[in-house]
User: Fold this.
Amino acid sequence: MYSIETKSLTKSFGDLVAVNDISFSVEKGEIFGFLGPNGAGKSTTMMIFTTLLKPTNGNALVGGFDVLKNPKQVRENIGFVQQETTVDEYLSGRENLLLQAKLNHIPKNEINQRIDEVLDLIELSDKQDEAVVTYSGGMRKRLDIAGGLLHHPRVLFLDEPTVGLDIQTRRKIWQYIKKIHTQFDMTIFLTTHYMEEADSLCDRIGIIDHGKIQVIDTPKNMKNDLGNEIISLVIESNNNSDSFLLELKKIEFIKKINEDDSKLTLFTSNGTEVIPKIFQISSELGIKIKSISLTQPTLDDVFISYTGHEIRDDDSKYNRRREHAKMKRLRQ
Ligand SMILES: Nc1ncnc2c1ncn2[C@@H]1O[C@H](COP(=O)(O)OP(=O)(O)OP(=O)(O)O)[C@@H](O)[C@H]1O
Assistant:
């Protein structure tokens, strides 16, 4: 049983194809993550799933409902926690949730009990009567997430749930997301550009770049597919560099080689066998090895192997995102 199914989904803004013919499904109860850099098409896809944008082509079913034909039913079955916090700073935490409960048409006699339940879950009961202006960034995010849970959605959408937060707060939020997932037994679809977040939270990850899905798999399988070891090699280039690369490609156990100028990354299933062979070939061809190291693959390596570039995780993103979101709102 799928919570999200999409086929040939495409979204263009003028000449720009932000989401380019993507098809995939998310199983009921899964935590599924879209991992990709700025501008990859993550938020656009999520906005289509949450009925805030219409696709140019293709379609999607969310919670079994068609986003184009049954948008109201889709909205009743989902929670959407946007990247920007939507809480009102001058209201208390509880007042914010009351407002959210009314917007979600939660029956009056259930409101207080549901608010108590989510406040307890995200451990904000003690601070519920304080104005949000006094809350830290992490507490505001928790309150935002709580607001998305009040109507007990079947599918929860989290757009970059920890962007702009420090690493300790980020890890705390991951714990809350895991707790919510278990307690509410819901499907979670999240977007992130943090490798560690995708690795820690997601059952499966879709790597998205330039509007296209490059691969979908479990983090573990993705890493295993690269081989269990990585040899990073920096050489002093000379006329034999091309032959050196050709010879390396012939070595048994090497699954893939990425080249970045004089830096070579070799994905292998048996580093200890491969390293002596590298030294042998380099001495035969007169190639000087400046450095060599053997490590275990990370999700960063997986990302590079599928996209050919790093995810560019820079701190300026948060402000850029705010500008971006403002632009989106203005254009709608
Ligand atoms: N309303 C819009 N009008 C025009 N272009 C848009 C609009 N929304 C998004 N885009 C463009 O579509 C592309 C994908 O944007 P999207 O926000 O989906 O990316 P993303 O992966 O979520 O990255 P980011 O985290 O930077 O938002 C980008 O090039 C973006 O500039």
